[in-house]
Amino acid sequence: MKILTNRLGQFVVCGLVLTVIFRYALNLCIETESKFTPWLCAGIYFCLMYSIGSYFGKKDAMENGIHDIGFRQHLTTYLLCIGIAYAAPYIGLGMENQTHVNMSALFWGIGLFIHFIFFLKAQQKTIKGYAKEELFQ
Predict the structure, then answer these.
(1) Residue 80: what are its φ and ψ, rounded to 5°?
(2) C-alpha distance across the termini of the chain, in Å
(3) 105 burial class (0-12, 13-18, 19+ CB within 10 angstroms)?
(4) What is the pTM of this model?
(5) Which of 1, 34, 77, 127 is most buried, judging by how many CB atoms fall within 10 Å of its CB?
(6) Residue 66: which region, alpha, beta or left (left: phi > 0; alpha: psi -120 to 50)?
(7) Residue 122 has what pLDDT?
(8) How far apart are alpha carbons 120 and 45 in whole angstroms?
């Protein structure tokens, strides 16, 4: 099974652009001191990242026969979002409380670990990344 594909690379580029825009928009939302707008910003970011992950993941499945239940996109999103959150003070995207970033990384990491367990179970039903039904028709 190929791990790094062109579609994953395209997802990384789109995800990087969206994550930088999200961090900037989140910073602006936090500055307004509104309770609602940061949640709205995060919800929009989630929907957009889920949509592009689903799009590129389905394309990967059709073109490369990858059946990974979206784990590669989830891991990539985690690395992008948390990595940019840690780098934000150094690249001028605002200051966020480091404790909040650490807590986000921890809880999202727990969710990612649970997704990894489901990924491993799904991989047991495949042969070298190909669904058994596709090989034995």
Answers:
(1) -65, -50
(2) 20
(3) middle
(4) 0.77
(5) 77
(6) beta
(7) 80
(8) 27
> How far is the CA of 38 from the CAs of 47, 105, 120, 135, in angstroms?
14, 18, 34, 47
- Which pair of tokens denotes residue 133? 């039904």
Q: Which residues pair with 131 in a beta bridge?
A: 126
CA distance 49 to 59: 15
Give the type of residue at 88: A
Interatomic CA distance for residues 49 and 122, integer angstroms: 22
What average pLDDT values come out for the chain (137 residues) when binned by 10 residues? 78 91 86 87 92 86 73 89 87 78 93 90 69 59
